[in-house]
Write a structure and sequence with these properties.
By secondary structure, the protein is of the alpha/beta class. It contains 28 helices and 24 strands. It has a 5-stranded mixed β-barrel. It has a 5-stranded parallel sheet with strand order 8-9-12-7-13, with helices on both faces. A 4-stranded mixed sheet has the order 16-17-19-18. A hairpin with a 6-residue loop joins strand 10 and strand 11. Helix 2 runs parallel beside helix 4. The structure holds adenosine-5'-triphosphate and magnesium ion. The site of adenosine-5'-triphosphate has 19 residues, from helix 13, helix 18 and helix 20.
Length: about 775
């Protein structure tokens, strides 16, 4: 009977895995299963192009049978078909009406169903109308939550769906409901039931949407200005990218990142640098923080963390370079070569920390440069003189405004190798105050145990300084903190003799000065005698700096002569010097040859080398006690007192009237009065001055002396013999008295000086007096009693 029911039709079936087609609605479909393709083909071949679209109960079934499909389906018309390839069809189908599947069969090619329309009963009435309005309101509400700007349009659209079922289906298709819920709507028995279902779905949806917008709101409020800027910046970047533009900031960050990837960094440094780079990308480029981060990153990227220069360990070549650059200085050169030899055997050997001590201008700094050259290392130099602030060495923490990296790391950065020769000049002039103690920082820098992980405050990363070859220089060791001196290998560079100076001048200084002025050695001739005169009369120093300057002046004067038209070679004769350099500044011959009674010639060691120093004593007829002037230090004052006591207790032997001691005051002065002096080595000189004063016999002006004395009249050894002897020689003194215990130091005295000078070694003050004050013991010998 149903066979003859005209409404019952047999149509090809198209099963859907995840969705439901509602009547009156268009739906795009992609078809791929062979049976479905065949079904569509059959439908397209038929006159009405009709198919039955039915939802599967489970999406996973590939070849569904009747049990796998819902019983209520939708009859549809294929409106459009395109076929991108053999195994695919793109369809546009229009739902026509609800149908019930009566029977389903596979005809070998595709599924065929016998279906009958199941229209909804007409239940329009107040209840349906009320439900319709409630649903419409809820839907508008939900839509306004999704799209706050344009709810009006949506209202219009719903208004167009006056008929309640149309509205339900439309909403369902818009809401992306689960397939099961859509099927339930399709299967609803009455319009009212469908509206009720829709109402529950919508209320649930509204709740979810409300919650979602609340979460979004909260989050938006929490988002700080910075984050918002970041988001905007990201968007701007996206836009710029879209437009094919690159913003400079981003390009900059990209470049940094590229460099970071290529750079050879230790793990810790890489991690920190990456973190900082990420931060940098978020910071607005105009902000000071951006600048700070960028400067820091530059530093990290530029530092030679692992770059080293290769040492040139060719000893012959090294010796050649050292000799080529400096005359003499054998001991120091040997020490350098020893170190090279060690490095050759054991490349991991720790570099020694050398300390060159010596007067100014003896070549400490330039020797450092020469060592770097012979080793093939980079040379960097910094002066510690007057440095007070620890942060200068070690840097300021980055959090301070204007913070800078410390000088050590700066030097390493300039060297662009982590094993340079780093010269720390003037360690003896380190300051120290409330800003911290740079010596303490220096201790850490120079300590091989600690400098492997040297931490600059600014860099805030451990940097390995253990490969750095440190050389420090000082004029005197007295003010170098003990712990610092202990870490270093001290090498003394003493002053030069006249002959050495002449040699240095001939080999290095004159050629250099000529080069500077553009003269050749044929154009400017400087005979030996002239050079000697310059050394003697125009300079007085341990080193050769003043000499070099003076030679420079001579060279410039000669250049001027050429400029003024001179054509023949210029020979600088001794007589010309007055005109070129002005009056002679030092007159060795005119040294106080004739000393009055009460004056004695001593020798002192100073930072600038040795010096001749006079001790002057006089009696004050109405005075009392002992007056000492000339800025004498404690030790010197004490040794003067010891000398005084010795002379007083030996008055008789010296033929001195002891009354003078009690009746007159004593004034002892040591010029130059403005220069502070200290040390025990003037004891002997003071004793001679006093003995001369009281005995009224002048001391010999051609003799200088040095030595400490005891109350019992013993002469004790002193330091700086070489410097003192050279100073005496510079001053034209040819006779020197030295403590016997200092005889061993004679091997340091240059050959020429030894040949030219007379040295008298003494153990007791009596020997000194006998040698320096002619006739002091005469009367005693003659048996004449003191007056
Ligand atoms: N033995 C030498 N041979 C060649 N040149 C020398 C020698 N000694 C010093 N000089 C030259 O003398 C000049 C001064 O030397 P330098 O600046 O190294 O002195 P310094 O010891 O570092 O003095 P300061 O203690 O004042 O720093 C340099 O031009 C250097 O080349
Ligand atoms: Mg120097």
């Amino acid at each position: 009977m149903s066979e003859i029911d005209p409404a019952v039709r047999t149509l090809p079936v198209l099963p859907l895995k995840n969705s439901v087609l509602f009547p009156n609605l268009l739906m795009p479909l992609s078809v791929g299963r062979p049976a479905s393709l065949a079904a569509v083909a059959a439908a397209l071949a038929s006159e009405g192009k009709e198919v039955v679209i039915v939802a599967q109960r489970a999406a996973s079934v590939e070849e569904p049978a009747q049990d796998d499909l819902h019983a209520i389906a939708t009859k549809a018309v294929v409106r459009k078909m395109t076929r991108p390839n053999e195994s695919m069809m793109e369809l546009l189908v229009l739902g026509i009406e609800r149908v019930a599947i009566l029977k389903l069969e596979h005809n070998g090619e595709y599924l065929e169903a016998r279906v009958r329309p199941v229209p909804l009963p007409d239940d329009s009435g107040t209840e349906v109308e009320a439900l319709r309005r409630a649903v419409a309101d809820l839907a508008t509400n939900a839509f306004s939550l999704v799209q706050p700007q344009a709810p009006a349009e949506f209202g219009q659209m719903l208004g167009g769906a006056e008929e309640p079922m149309r509205m339900v289906y439309l909403l369902a298709s818009l809401m992306s409901l689960e397939a099961a819920k859509e099927q339930a709507l399709l299967e609803a028995q009455t319009c009212a039931a469908a509206l009720r279902l829709m109402h529950t779905y919508l209320s649930h949806e509204v709740q979810v949407l409300e919650l979602r917008s609340k979460i979004a709101n909260d989050a938006r409020n929490e988002m700080s200005r910075e984050q918002r800027e970041y988001l905007l910046r990201q968007q701007m970047r996206a836009i710029q990218q879209e437009l094919g533009e690159k913003n400079p900031e981003q390009a900059d960050a990209e470049e940094l990142r590229e460099r970071l990837e290529k750079a050879e960094l230790p793990e810790e440094a890489r991690k920190d640098a990456e973190r900082e780079l990420t931060r940098l990308e978020r910071l607005p480029s105009a902000s000071p923080e951006h600048h700070v981060a960028r400067t820091w990153l530059e530093l990290v990227l530029e530092l030679p963390w692992k770059q080293t220069t290769e040492d040139n360990l060719d000893l012959k070549r090294a010796r050649g370079i050292l000799d080529q650059d400096h005359y003499g200085l054998q001991e120091v050169k040997e020490r350098i070569l020893e170190h090279l030899a060690v490095l050759k055997r054991n490349p991991d050997a720790k570099a020694p920390i050398l300390c060159f001590v010596g007067p100014p201008g003896v070549g400490k700094t330039s020797l450092g440069q020469s060592i770097a050259r012979s080793l093939g290392r980079k040379f960097e130099r910094m002066s510690l003189g007057g440095m007070h602030d620890e942060a200068e060495l070690r840097g300021h923490r980055r959090t301070y405004i204007g913070a800078m990296v410390g000088r050590v790391i700066q030097a390493i950065r300039r060297a662009s190798a982590c094993n340079p020769l780093l010269m720390l000049d003037e360690v003896d002039k380190l300051g120290r105050d409330f800003r911290g103690d740079p010596a303490a920082a220096l201790l850490e820098i120079l300590d091989p145990e600690q400098n492997k992980t040297f931490r600059d405050n600014y860099l805030d990363l451990a940097f390995d300084l253990s490969k750095v070859f440190f050389i420090t220089t000082a004029n005197s060791l007295d003010t170098v903190p003990r712990p610092l001196a202990d870490r270093m290998e001290i090498l003394h560079l003493s002053g030069y003799t006249e002959e050495e100076k002449a040699e240095i001048a001939l080999r290095y200084l004159i050629p250099r000065q000529l080069r500077e002025t553009g003269l050749t050695s044929e154009e400017c001739i400087l005979p030996q005698e002239t050079l000697k005169r310059i050394i003697r009369r125009y300079t007085r120093e341990a080193g050769v700096r003043q000499l070099e300057r003076t030679l420079g002046r001579v060279a410039r004067k000669v250049t001027l002569k050429y400029a003024e038209g001179s054509e023949s070679a210029v020979t600088v004769r001794e007589e010309d010097l007055g005109e070129m350099l002005g009056a002679e500044m030092f007159h060795p011959e005119k040294m106080r040859r004739e000393l009055p009674a009460g004056v004695a010639t001593g020798l002192a060691w100073t930072e600038a080398g040795g010096d001749v120093l006079y001790v002057e004593a006089t009696m004050l007829p109405d005075g009392k006690g002992l007056t000492l002037t000339g800025q004498l230090g404690d030790v010197m004052q004490e040794s003067v007192k010891a000398a005084q006591s010795w002379v007083w207790t030996h008055a008789e032997e010296l033929n001195v009237n002891p009354k003078q001691f009690s009746e007159c005051g004593l004034h002892l002065h040591v010029p130059a009065g403005a220069v502070p002096k200290d040390g025990p080595s003037a004891g002997v000189t003071a004793a001679v001055a006093l003995a001369s004063l009281y005995s009224k016999r002048p001391a010999r002006g051609d003799t200088a002396m040095t030595g400490e004395i005891t109350l019992t009249g013993l002469v004790l050894p002193i330091g700086g013999v070489k410097e003192k002897v050279l100073a005496a020689r510079r001053s034209g003194i040819r006779r020197v008295l030295l403590p016997k215990a200092n005889q061993k130091d004679m091997r340091d005295i240059p050959e020429e000086a030894r040949k030219e000078m007379e040295f008298i070694f003494v153990e007791k003050i009596e020997e000194v007096l006998a040698a320096v004050i002619p006739g002091i013991y005469d009367r005693a010998e003659a048996g004449v009693p003191a007056a």
